[in-house]
Amino acid sequence: KTLKKTTKMVEQKRFALLLATSDSTFVKKTYGGYFNVFVSTFGEEGEQWDLFRVIDGEFPEDKDLDKYEGFVISGSLHDAFGDDDW
């Protein structure tokens, strides 16, 4: 009797962090940046996390949106009533 070895591909879950604020000096020094804070809080082993600094105009491409299991949007120092550009 011959046993056939099969390998099942496990698809890696992929998430995107949409960072709507800049890393503060404290967060950089203490945690290495907000990305590390979010991934260590919400991430699980084997997942892939991508960072997009939306505060700087960096967004995932439309063609890649379906590759993500979910999106996490950070808070922001800005609000709808301020004079900041959106």
Mind explaining what this structure looks like?
This protein is of the alpha/beta class. It has a three-stranded parallel beta sheet, covered by helices on one side. The protein has a domain of 60 residues. The radius of gyration is 18 Å and the shape is flat. The N and C termini lie far apart (67 Å). It has two helices and three strands, in the order βααββ.
Shape: flat
* SSE order: EHHEE
SS-based structural class?
alpha/beta
Described by its quaternary structure, the protein is single chain
Poorly predicted sequence stretches spanning 5 or more consecutive residues: none
State which percent range the strand residues make up.
15-25%
The biggest sheet, with number of strands, parallel, antiparallel or mixed sense and barrel status, is: 3 strands, parallel
Alpha-carbon Rg, integer: 18 Å
Kindly report how far apart the N and C termini lie: 67 Å
Helix % is: 10-25%
What's the total count of β strands?
A: 3
Main sheet strand line-up:
2-1-3
- Can you count the helices? 2
Average pLDDT over all residues:
89
GO cellular component, one term: cytosol
InterPro entries: ChyE-like, Class_I_gatase-like
Main location: cytoplasm
Subcellular location: Cytoplasm, Cytosol
Q: Which keywords apply here?
A:
single chain, alpha/beta, 3-stranded parallel beta sheet, 2 helices, flat
Give a short overview:
By secondary structure, the chain is an alpha/beta fold. The chain is built from 2 helices and 3 strands.
